Amino acid sequence: MSDTETGLVPAPRRFAWVPPGKGLEVLDEETAINAGPGTESTARWLRATVGAATGLPLPDGDGHHNHLVLRIDPRAAGELGPEGYRIVIDGYGLFLDGADPAGLFWAAQTFRQMLGPDAFRRAPVAARDEWHVPCVTIQDAPRFGWRGALLDVARHFVPKDGVLRFLDLLAAHKLNVLHLHLTDDQGWRVEIERYPRLTEVGAWRSRTKLGHRASPLWDERPHGGYYTKDDLREIVAYAAERHITVVPEIDLPGHSQAAIAAYPELGNADVVDTAALGVRDTWGVSPNVLAPTDATLAFYENVLTEVLDVFPSRFVHIGGDECPKDQWKASPAARARMAAEGLADEKELQSWFIRHFDRWLAARGRRLIGWDEILEGGLAEGAAVASWRGYAGGVAAARAGHDVVMCPEQQVYLDHRQAPGPDEPVPIGWVRTLEDVYRFEPVPSELTPEEAGHVLGAQANLWTEVMEDQQRLDYQAFPRLAAFAEAVWSALPPPAERDFAHFEQRMAVHYRRLDALGVAYRPPGGPLPWQ
Ligand code: TNX
Prior knowledge:
Blueprint: H1 3-6, E1 14-17, E2 24-27, E3 32-35, H2 40-54, E4 67-72, H3 75-80, E5 85-89, E6 94-98, H4 101-115, E7 131-134, E8 136-140, E9 146-152, H5 160-172, E10 177-181, E11 183-184, E12 187-188, H6 197-200, E13 204-205, E14 223-224, H7 229-241, E15 245-252, H8 257-262, H9 294-310, E16 315-319, H10 326-330, H11 332-341, H12 346-362, E17 367-371, E18 384-387, H13 392-399, E19 404-406, H14 409-412, H15 434-438, H16 449-452, E20 455-462, H17 470-477, H18 480-489, H19 500-517
Parallel strand pairs: 3-4, 4-6, 9-10, 9-20, 10-15, 15-16, 16-17, 17-18, 18-19, 19-20
Antiparallel strand pairs: 1-8, 2-7, 5-6, 5-8, 11-12, 13-14
Helix pairs in contact: 2-4, 5-7
Organism: Streptomyces mobaraensis
Keywords: Glycosidase, Hydrolase
Family: Belongs to the glycosyl hydrolase 20 family.
């Protein structure tokens, strides 16, 4: 057997067969789970997934023989690193050790992969008394602590079940941050009790323009939806059980037309008739941005107060991207605000918004993260930067001592098409192939080691203008998210030296897991007929 046959994705740091020729360990009716302190959530997860797929009872047990032994071994933390784990399957037992609870959970993910693709089903497909895992030792730990995916639930609403399913898929790839893009010009998706119109009005649009810019086509269908606070609490708890942090994004001061449609006083009413605005029904960036007033700040403080109540994450994303300045240039009220604050130009006015919320979040024990446009006009003191327009913003921020999450659109924008050719379903032009994503390197070589220490990790972004349902989302996300997971988890060599052929061989196994999970990924041969 070679490690290609086990097809582990992402690849573990160290993998060895023990001892050579020793063979297989068996899971059967007698197999129990010996769950040590701090391992309960992983034991629950194993029963819910491997238990359901195999039909084995996996009861509690406290021995070693034919037991799956789950332990947290803090002594191993130094050796393994945060979120690290060790697996020993040697003919005498099955031992999963985590440096911490998260590490143990990732060990369980690797373990399920080794049981074979049928272990990813929700019920057994054939009467089978025994399940086998190969005898191996594995030692593994992630390269980065921030291994994320952005899900844009604003452009197309992803119903709660879809988000929970997506969390399971992230966990299966050892990704640990879900960045939920909750608000945009085209929709507001989070219930705010104090401002009910945000969802009564802001969560709905009557129709959507298909395609980009010049497209004459409309779908003529209403679209919308939002999450109640309990929905979001459920999502946060479901994620936490899987060692995933949900980072909420409330986008401001641009990308705010849905909010302005609900509460016209938030917009620049001295230059546009904001009362006549609806939720934006075309893609692209709206010129309708927030007015720089005290009332706007107070409104968003109230919104964020409710958001913080639901999301315990240390980081809170406030957007800051693509804020057209034309209305501020034209607005006497905005100019008066700039004069009063001593701001030289509109970029500084944008920065004024961000700095305000940087201080506001810091006072509540949170940290602000925003898109790289927040560098323009002066970076707020505690802000971390999500670098999306290439690496430049991230490099500048890291050099200035700020933390960075890399998500350059040239490599990890999964709304971009996966291949050239007329049959690809996505009208966004740029091609980002599986191999492009596999060769993604979060740390640009121009950074010194100290600066590189500010790169918390990376995330792949799924903007959903062209993903109106789960099938399309699956198709754009997979298999590229698997390549991304390897780029942020595994200790890979520099991009040009990466063994993409080996990755593809392991993917041959991984596709069967995705089949078992019911993921509508893009097959290696090209688009599916439904596109
Ligand atoms: C740019 S990335 C955006 C999004 C779009 C995306 C489409 C970023 C901060 N802004 O609003 O959905 O491009 O690829």
